[in-house]
Design brief:
Strand content: under 5%
Structural class: mainly alpha
Number of domains: 1
Shape: elongated
CATH topology: Ferritin
Number of helices: 5
Number of strands: 0
CATH architecture: Up-down Bundle
Oligomer: single chain
CATH class: Mainly Alpha
Length: 176
């Protein structure tokens, strides 16, 4: 059974994951309108992932006797300065998500709710991956600088990466 405080904190995280999904969706839409098909495919995929993170939390809260609340989401920005600015925002955002997950983990330890603590370890690991990926992309964009040819190849590489990720997910869903 979740304590009222942990239930409230987990619902706050549900809202943050929902906003993350919307934020990345807005970025994906912007990138698509800029002719950046690889960047948009990558961001559409990450938007879906964030939505799944939200759903996983909702189901957990409900299974533990709480009530996972579907949040009202504020509208994210609709335009962005550049691809580099988008990924710098993603890194900054993921770092803030990590901080919130860490606060949640700390709260579970203070309350001795080891079931929720165990559940949150998946999010801890996921955040390590999310931050590392965002850092790698920002580093690549720094290398590219203002080279439009470099941006073209970067976009193409992200599209290939997104297609491979989608194919791997489909393969996992098929019975063997």
């Amino acid at each position: 059974m979740l304590s009222p405080q942990l239930s409230k904190s987990l619902n706050k995280q549900i809202e943050l994951e929902g906003f993350s999904s919307q934020y990345y969706l807005a970025m994906a839409s912007w990138a698509e309108t800029q002719g950046l098909n690889g960047v948009s495919a990558f961001l559409y995929h990450h938007s879906d992932e964030e939505r799944l993170h939200m759903l996983k939390l909702i189901k957990f809260v409900n299974e533990r006797g709480g009530h996972g609340v579907v949040p009202t989401l504020k509208q994210p920005p609709v335009t962005f300065k550049s691809v580099k600015a988008v990924f710098e925002e993603i890194l900054k955002h993921e770092m803030s998500v990590t901080a919130e997950i860490n606060h949640l983990v700390d709260a579970t330890l203070k309350e001795k709710d080891y079931t929720t603590h165990n559940f949150l370890q998946w999010y801890v690991s996921e955040q390590i991956e999310e931050e590392a990926l965002a850092r790698q992309i920002v580093d690549k964009l720094k290398l590219i600088g203002s080279d439009k040819g470099g941006l073209y190849f970067f976009d193409r590489d992200l599209e290939t990466m997104s297609n491979e990720a989608a194919a791997n997910e489909q393969a996992k869903k098929k019975p063997q």
